[in-house]
Design a protein that fits this description.
Elements lengths: L8 E4 L2 E4 L4 E3 L7 E3 L14 E5 H11 L5 E4 L5 E3 L2 E7 L7 E7 L2 E5 L21 E5 L12 H13 L5 E5 L5 H9 L7 E4 H12 L8 E3 L12 E4 L6 H4 L5 E6 L6 H6 L4 E3 L7 H11 L3 E5 L4 H11 L3 E3 L5
Parallel strand pairs: 3-4, 4-5, 5-6, 10-11, 11-18, 12-15, 12-16, 13-14, 13-15, 16-17, 18-19
Antiparallel strand pairs: 1-2, 2-3, 7-8, 8-9, 9-10
Helix pairs in contact: 1-4
Length: 329
């Protein structure tokens, strides 16, 4: 039996580290053994000796980064014992296969949320409520200005934006993994002439469909298309194509960006996009507070983003023992 200790998880230069099990969580640099919460590239480092993740994340990682990675996949809620410490994965609601990491050391419970979303999303499993003693919670959007509107409202806004300019090609930039599939699952119920997606999005769609996620139909946008015949069509493309050389190929085009950061008016104006749609696969201010309260944790650490405003609010209002993760010694 492992004795309880408050420094079970620490923040190191390579990422979150559990010394007792000699394992890293979402490391920034190559390590011997790593647990990966989900398949976004900012949570994955190439060159690790072994990767542990959910089954869905395993498929996505191989598709994104190649087959030459040493993967160990486990089902949600299945315990994995490493050096006397139990690890298990649980849905975080962020994207397909995204996981919270629950850690049991003796009678002490730790929970690392990873990136999480509390809004309903038909393309991934919903966030699972888990109680813990110690909580490491993401705080990407840890400011009160971030309060998401309903997904249906955003989808209606996108639909109206496209329909208002029948003589233009509408390009909506979005992340190829997670956001694109969520948008497609709703947009396909709307009356668009055509929806085209970049090949990077199509590759991810095929993995989603393998796990039973439907309503992701779209045509592939490629260089063989006659670009100026795409008027009154919607294109979902990765942000890397938002450049003058690419956009000047269109006679008439308008651009939008689907991101939670579009809630910030000043950023929206400076972004250069014709339209910003504030839709995020992260929890907003109220979602973060709800998650923290539901955990019943007595010790709370905030990770990813500047969580000082959220920490101060919950210290003052709820008398929570909460601080940013960098303060763990």
């Amino acid at each position: 039996m492992v004795n309880s200790k408050q420094n079970l998880i620490t923040q190191k230069s390579k990422g979150l580290y559990c010394e007792s099990a000699n394992i890293w969580i979402d490391p920034y640099k190559p390590v011997e053994k790593a647990i990966i919460s989900h398949a976004h590239s900012d949570h994955f480092s190439k060159g690790c000796g072994e990767y542990i993740c959910s089954i869905e994340t395993g498929f996505l990682l191989r598709k994104r980064f190649g087959n030459n990675i040493n993967l160990k996949v486990i089902d949600y809620d299945k315990k994995l014992l490493i050096n006397g410490i139990n690890f298990s994965l649980h849905p975080s609601g962020h994207i397909l296969g995204s996981s919270q990491i629950k850690i049991m050391a003796g009678s002490e419970k730790w929970l690392i949320t990873g990136d999480l979303k509390r809004q309903k999303d038909n393309t991934c499993e919903s966030y699972e409520r888990i109680k813990s003693d110690f909580l490491i919670c993401e705080s990407t959007f840890g400011l009160p200005i971030f309060n998401w509107e309903s997904t249906d409202k955003i989808i209606d806004d996108i639909t109206n934006w496209v329909s208002q300019s029948e003589d233009s090609t509408s390009i909506l930039f979005c992340y190829s993994l997670g956001k694109a599939q969520r948008l497609l699952s709703h947009l396909n119920s709307k009356n668009f002439k055509n929806i085209y997606v970049h090949k990077s999005i199509k590759k991810m769609n095929l993995i989603y469909k393998k796990f039973g996620v439907e309503h992701l139909e779209a045509k592939i946008f490629d260089n063989d298309l006659e670009i100026n015949n795409l008027k009154n069509n919607l294109l979902l493309l990765p942000l890397s194509l938002n450049n003058k050389n690419f956009l000047k190929k269109f006679k008439k085009v308008k651009t939008g960006f689907a991101s939670g950061w579009m809630s910030i008016r000043a950023l929206k104006k400076r972004s250069g996009f014709d339209k910003g749609f504030a839709i995020s696969d992260h929890a907003d201010w109220n979602g973060l507070i709800k998650t923290i309260k539901e955990s019943k944790a007595k010790n709370i650490f905030l990770n990813h983003g500047d969580g000082e405003s959220l920490a101060k609010f919950l210290r003052d209002k709820e008398d929570f023992n909460i601080k940013q993760l960098k303060e763990i010694k």
